[in-house]
């Protein structure tokens, strides 16, 4: 798909803001490790998305900020980038308001239609409550059976040579394998952000402590030493939360028992698709159907992790 045809492009056009910053992205995989590079080349290959397969030497020459060890396959896609989450959310809220949507902020929904600041009747209800989804589904006697909420955290490092990690010359990266790490070039400030994916710090959705683990940054720093030796000292660590089901697939569509209730769950990797998911649920609510193929995001899954 061409960028001009994507929902992000339409949001940029409508808002007059640059929301997507193309930096290129690289996924590192240990040769002979649990995840073959074909897992990351099949999809771009079959969808006409250009990619390059690089070895460690080529990576280290192209981006001097990296010093990845030998025996690594790297899949590079030039059109990967960063979206600035808070700017994007503000842009979407502004567009929604400008198009007649009434946003009730800091207002708790107690059931699908009763909210803490009054009652509403609605023909259709869309639930996009992420980690609190099951709480809201409770009164409907529905739930996503196997859902795990984790407190995650990301760390900002202050390199002594931030130019080396500028988005124009340093990509977004993911280290695949049994333990997944990921990171970003400098963005908005002269720091580089990195984190470990799926930290298994399981918690109840209402008990997000916002207190980072002290252990994780130590492990992360050791890992960063091995591939980005110029990362510099740790500056700060902040927490957020993931909600995931075992298959990590999105859940988008109407509930089988209550087709007027439409669910959208992003399974910990949905921000990049927010404008598309928003459009799809709006189409489902207004037209009763969407032209996008959402068959891969069903309400029930073979693993039994969802049956709604
Ligand atoms: C460390 C980390 C890294 C990530 N990295 C990426 C990435 O690189 N790319 C990517 O695409 N995604 C990424 N994600 C995932 C992405 O951020 C989420 O999938 C996305 O933000 C979920 O959006 P949402 O609107 O569905 O849920 P949320 O943003 O969680 O919003 C749910 C909202 O529901 C509200 N709510 C809950 N209960 C009620 C109630 N009773 N009444 C009213 N409101 C209620 C909450 O207040 C909240 O505002 C990452 C997440 C984490 C934690």
UniProtKB/TrEMBL annotation:
It comes from Penicillium hetheringtonii. The lineage of its organism: Eukaryota, Fungi, Dikarya, Ascomycota, Pezizomycotina. The keyword Nuclease does not apply. It comes from the Eukaryota. GO terms for molecular function: flavin adenine dinucleotide binding; sarcosine oxidase activity. Its cofactor is FAD. PANTHER family: FAD DEPENDENT OXIDOREDUCTASE DOMAIN-CONTAINING PROTEIN, PEROXISOMAL SARCOSINE OXIDASE. Residues 8-284 form the FAD dependent oxidoreductase domain. It holds the Pfam family DAO. Keywords: FAD, Flavoprotein, Oxidoreductase. The keyword Oxidoreductase applies. Belongs to the MSOX/MTOX family. This is FAD dependent oxidoreductase domain-containing protein.
């Amino acid at each position: 798909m061409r960028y001009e045809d994507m929902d992000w492009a339409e949001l940029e056009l409508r808002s007059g803001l640059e929301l997507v910053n193309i930096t290129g992205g690289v996924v590192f995989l240990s040769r002979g490790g649990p995840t073959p590079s074909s897992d990351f080349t099949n999809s771009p290959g079959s969808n006409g998305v250009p990619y390059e397969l690089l070895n460690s030497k080529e990576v280290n020459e192209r981006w001097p900020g990296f010093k990845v060890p030998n025996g690594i396959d790297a899949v590079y896609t030039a059109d990967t980038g960063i979206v600035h989450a808070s700017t994007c959310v503000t842009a979407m809220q502004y567009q929604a308001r400008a198009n007649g949507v009434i946003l009730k902020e800091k207002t708790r929904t107690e059931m699908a239609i009763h909210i803490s600041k009054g009652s509403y009747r609605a023909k259709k209800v869309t639930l996009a409550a992420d980690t609190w989804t099951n709480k809201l589904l409770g009164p409907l006697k529905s739930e996503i059976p196997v859902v795990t909420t984790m407190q995650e955290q990301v760390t900002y490092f202050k390199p002594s040579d931030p130019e080396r990690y500028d988005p124009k010359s340093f990509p977004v990266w993911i280290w695949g394998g049994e333990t997944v790490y990921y990171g970003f070039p400098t963005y908005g400030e002269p720091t580089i952000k990195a984190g470990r994916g799926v930290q298994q710090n399981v918690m109840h959705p209402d008990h997000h402590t916002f207190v980072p683990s002290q252990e994780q940054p130590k492990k992360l720093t050791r890992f960063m030493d091995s591939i980005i030796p110029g990362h510099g000292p740790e500056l700060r660590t902040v927490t957020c939360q993931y909600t995931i089901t075992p298959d990590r697939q999105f859940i988008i569509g109407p509930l089988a028992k209550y087709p007027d209730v439409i669910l959208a769950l992003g399974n910990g990797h949905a921000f990049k698709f927010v404008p598309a998911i928003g459009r799809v649920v709006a189409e489902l609510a207004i037209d009763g159907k969407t032209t996008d193929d959402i068959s891969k995001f069903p309400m029930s899954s073979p693993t039994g992790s969802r049956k709604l």
